Amino acid sequence: AGAPFITSAAEMLPKKGRRVVVIGGGYGGSIVAKYIRINDPSIEVVMIERDKKFVSCPFSNTVIGGFRDIKDNTITYENLAANNGIKVVYDEVTAVDTSAKKVVVSGGTISYDRLVLSPGIDFRFEEIEGYDPVATPKVIPHAWKAGEQTLLLRKQLVDLPKGGTVVMSIPVTPFRCPPGPYERISMMAWHLKNHNPTAKIIVLDANPDIVSKGPLFKKAWAKHYEGMIDYRPGNKVTKVDNKKRSVDTGVEEIKGDLVNLVPPQKAGMIAHKAGVVGEDKKWCPVNQLSFESTLAKDVHIIGDSCMAGAMPKSGYSANSQAKVCATNIVQLMNGQDLIDPSHTNVCYSYVTENEAISVAAVYKVAEGKTIAVANSGGVSPDLSELEAIYARSWIKNILHEMSS
Amino acid sequence: MERKLIKFVLLAGGLAVSSSLWAAPSTPAMLSNTCSACHGQFGQAVGPSIPTLAGQPASYIADAMKQFKSGERTGSVMGRVAKAYTDDDFNAMGEFFSQKKFVRYPQKVDAAKVAKGKELHEQNCKKCHTEGGRESEDGGVIAGQWSEYLHITMDDFASKKRAMPKKMAEKFEGLSKDDRDALVNFYASQQ
Ligand SMILES: Cc1cc2nc3c(=O)[nH]c(=O)nc-3n(C[C@H](O)[C@H](O)[C@H](O)COP(=O)(O)OP(=O)(O)OC[C@H]3O[C@@H](n4cnc5c(N)ncnc54)[C@H](O)[C@@H]3O)c2cc1C
C-alpha cells in the first residue's frame, strides 16, 4: 500500500457525508464519477483532473490524417459538473495515502471513503537508451497522449520532404489501443498518398505480427497504399538518437525524416505512487467484479492502468469498466451484493478517410476472470464505408456522455 | 429475472477484496449501460447515424436483437454484439431503454422535402407508424430518429437486405429514391 506520509497540508474540502474521490477525468474517470452520482446521488463525488481540457486519443489519428479538427476531439467539464453535481478539482494528485485515505494535491489534501484511479498510461522511457522524457518527444513525437503531441506529429507529416521517410516504432503488447498504431500508419499513409506519394513509411513492430485486425489492415494497405508501407515485424527499438533522428534495433540503425516512436507503457504514475501496481511493476491487479485493488483496500482502478482479463486497453473498455465499477462501488457503500458485470468493447479504425474496420466483443466474469463471451464478437468482414459512418456517431456519443 | 446467487471465486492473494463474496445476476441497467457508448447515454443518441434506442417499445428492441442474433437482420456490428446474449437479456434491455425518454434533436432538413414526405407518410405509412411516426408497437419510433440511420435502413429495405412486413412492402415498393429521401426529411423534422 502507498507509503504513509506526514503532511501539514490542510484538508481542502472537509468531508460531511460519504465521499468518492476520482483521479483522472478521461475515458474512465469522467464516467465513473457520473455513474456513481446517477446510481446514488447521496454520495459526494470529487473528480481531480490536471487539465481543464481533455483531448481524446480516439479519433486523434484522423486529425493526423488531416480530416478532423482537434477541437472536435476536445471536451471540458462544466456541464458534467453542473448536471451531475460532481465537484471537479483542476489539480495534479502528487501522492496517495491509502491508510489515512487521503490524496495530496497542490492546494492541500482531500480525504475519501473510496478512491478510484483512472490515470491512463505513463511511459517506460528507461527501456529505450537515449530517450530523454522532456527533450525527445519534442523532436520525435509519440502522440500516444493526445493534444500538442498530435498536432506536432501532424505538422511533421505535412512538412515531410518530398519522397521522405517516416519511421514508426511500435512497442510490445500490452499497450493502450492495440489497433491504434496500425490505424496511425493508415492515416499517415492516407495523407502521404494524397500529398507526397513517393514518401515511404518504415514500420518497426516489436511484435511478431500486427496485434489487432491484422488481415484487414494488410488488405487495406495492399488496396490503398501499395508500395508505401514497409512493415517489419519482430523489430524492437532499444535506442534513440534525437540529433540524428534515428532509432536502433540493436541490429540496425534507421534514420527517418519523421520518427514516430511509441514507447512501451505502464499504469499512470500516480498508481505507482499509490502502491497499487502489481509484481510486474507495470499494471494494477484488481478484483474483476468491483475493480477494487487486490493490494489496497477501498481503492479501485479502471481503464488503461488496470488488468481486466481479456479486455483490451481502450476508451470503450474504460467507459464500460467505469460503469461496472460505479455500480458496484455504490452496492458496496450501501452494504449490498455486487452485481455480475457485463461489458462490451468495440474499436473502430479508419483505414482511409471514408473506410473503417472494427473489432467487437462482449465480456463477462467467470470464476473471477474477465473473459470474452464465446461465439460472439469478432472483426468486421471487410473495409467499409458504413463502419466509417457509424464510427463518427460512436465518437460523438461517447464524448457527449463524458462531458454532459 | 432469476435472483440466483452465483459464487465469486476469490483470486489467490486477493487479501484486500471487499466483504462481499457474492455477485447477484446482472440487472437491466448493468446489461444496457455498456451499449450507450455507441447508442448514447440511456440510448439517447446525439447523432448523426447510430439509432436512438430510448423510448423505443421494449418488444421492438428485443425483436431487433433476436433478428440480429439469428442473422435474419444484417447490420454492420449488431450481429456480432447480439450473439453474446440470451432472450432474457434482450427483454431486460428492451425494458430498460423503453423507459427512457426519446430525445429529439434538431436535424438539418429541407422544407419542401418535409412537405412532400408528410404527404407520402399520410398516404402510405401512418396506419402502422401512427402519430407521425412517434408510435408503433412493432415498427419502432421513427419520428426524430437520426436521418443518416433512416437513410441506411430504408435503403436496406429497398434492396431487400432488411425484411419488412408484407403490408409495409406493398406501400414501400412503389417509392422512388427521392420519395424515400422526402420521408426521411419528414421524420427527421419531427420534434
Ligand atoms: C492514437 C490512439 C488512438 C486510440 N483510439 C481509440 C479508439 O478508437 N477507441 C478506443 O476505445 N480507444 C482508443 N484509444 C485508447 C484510449 O485513448 C484509452 O484506452 C483511454 O483513454 C483510457 O482511458 P483512461 O481513463 O484509462 O485514461 P485517459 O483517458 O488517458 O484519462 C486519464 C486522465 O487522468 C489524468 N491524470 C493522470 N494522472 C493524474 C494525476 N496524478 N492527477 C490528476 N489527473 C491525472 C490525465 O490528465 C487524463 O485526463 C486510442 C489511444 C491512442 C493513443
TrEMBL record, chain B:
It comes from the Bacteria. It comes from Sulfuricella denitrificans (strain DSM 22764 / NBRC 105220 / skB26). This is Cytochrome c553. One of its GO terms (cellular component) is periplasmic space. Gene3D superfamilies: Cytochrome c-like domain. GO terms for molecular function: electron transfer activity; heme binding; iron ion binding. Heme c 2 binds at residues 125, 128-129, 168. The gene is soxE. InterPro entries: Cyt_c-like_dom, Cyt_c-like_dom_sf, Cytochrome_c4-like, Cytochrome_c_Oxidase_Subunit. PROSITE patterns: CYTC (PS51007). It is found in: Periplasm. Residues 1-23 form the signal peptide. Binds 2 heme c groups covalently per subunit. Heme c 1 binds at residues 35, 38-39, 78. Keywords: Electron transport, Heme, Iron, Metal-binding, Periplasm, Signal, Transport. The keyword tRNA processing does not apply.
